[in-house]
Amino acid sequence: MIHIYMDDLRKVPKGFVLARSTEECLLMLRECEVDILSLDYDMGPGDYSGGEVARRIVLEGLFPREIYLHTSSLWGRREMYEILYTAKPEGMLLVNGPLSSDKLRDIAEETDLK
Asked: What is the distance, to the nearest Å, from the Cα of residue 84 to the centroid of all Cα atoms in its chain?
């Protein structure tokens, strides 16, 4: 089970696999069992946005156990949240913001124990 951090600029947190493009993120969602997904919205020129990833998650049923929206784009965060919230399975955690520093620390510590 993996944790995915989709972002074109930021450094990947410890314990996460980095997806630098929307296509890379979608490939991992299709091919791997994903526990936590953290999404950016603005993925740079020539790439789709996090909104497209949210749409694909819904259309293809690619829901991980938890999704966090770490983007600094308020509009983009709202778009992704609205797309995902209406279709999320019962029991899936959807957070309209980034992972907390406590959660990031716990994931990093779990990685150290493996």
From this structure: 11
> How many Cβ atoms are within 10 Å of 112's Cβ, its own excluded?
9
Helix (H, G, I), strand (E, B) or coil at 75: helix
Our count of domains for the chain comes to 1
State the Cα–Cα distance between residues 87 and 7, nearest whole angstrom: 23
Burial bucket for residue 73 (CB in 10 Å: 0-12, 13-18, 19+) = middle
The structure's pTM equals 0.95
For residue 90, what is the domain's CATH number?
3.40.50.2300
pLDDT (tens digit per residue) in 46-103 = 999 999 999 999 999 999 999 999 999 999 999 999 999 999 999 999 999 999 999 9
Owning domain of residue 28: 2-113
Element (H, E) at 24: helix 22-31
| Cα-Cα-Cα-Cα dihedral sign, residues 46, 57, 99, 25 | negative
